[in-house]
Amino acid sequence: MLVAASLSASAAPLAGAAPNTITGKIVFLDPGHNGANDASISRQVPTGRGGTKDCQASGTTTESGYPEHTFNWDVTLRVRAILDANGVRTALSRGNDDALGPCVDERAAMANALRPNAIVSIHADGGPATGRGFHVLYSDPPLNTVQAGPSVQFAQIMRDQLKGSGVVPSTYIGSNGLNPRSDIAGLNHAQFPSVLVELGNMKNPADSALMESEAGRQKLAEAVARGVATWLANS
After folding, report:
1. 128 part of a folded domain
2. Catalytic annotation, residues
């Protein structure tokens, strides 16, 4: 399954976008986790820092059982539709929400092969129920010049657009909506500007209510799309 090989176009305009500067740019979107799992997700793959980790993780769920992988898939499709409608060329790391997907290192390789202007991995967290809010991850300490500069700037822009859209920054992890990490294989392997967005805490009642509603997922998708478009217009 090489979803990254096909770049598509869709619908849904992006208010305030700068079409003349983002048209034709390439964005790789990674809906985190898989639609289905088996023992193969335990296969060890390189972390990008000399170690290994599981090929994939199963993700989390809300207390009512709404799975993270389905949330990630839904929001990613909404983000893709908005970007495509504004002339951005997009590709996905997986093509469905009911089967195994590529390992984390394979997703990074797919992204790098496209030489994209931006890479965004979309997730939701499973933290303590008392904590809520989003956080944006980037590779730290950086492993190349892109990770040292552009990825950090992209993370800051994404954080600002999420906050500006009324999405609450994390109260339980990271600092002011940012969470630099060294253990995320996809970010470690990235050769182009790359962030991972945890759009909220599925174990928190307020966050899960937002994620379980169509209106909430659309709000989050529009905020992510604005973050991507702002980065593209200024990079």
Report:
1. yes
2. 198
Is this model's pTM higher than 0.70 or not? yes
DSSP 86-133: TT-EEEES-S-SSS----HHHHHHHHHHH--SEEEEEEEE---TT---
Query: In a structure prediction context, what are the per-residue pLDDT tens digits for the chain, which is 235 residues long?
Result: 334 433 443 445 565 555 568 999 999 999 999 999 999 999 999 999 999 999 999 999 999 999 999 999 999 999 999 999 999 999 999 999 999 999 999 999 999 999 999 999 999 999 999 999 999 999 999 999 999 999 999 999 999 999 999 999 999 999 999 999 999 999 999 999 999 999 999 999 999 999 999 999 999 999 999 999 999 999 8
Domains held by the chain: number: 1
Task: Classify residue 15: in a domain, yes or no.
Answer: no
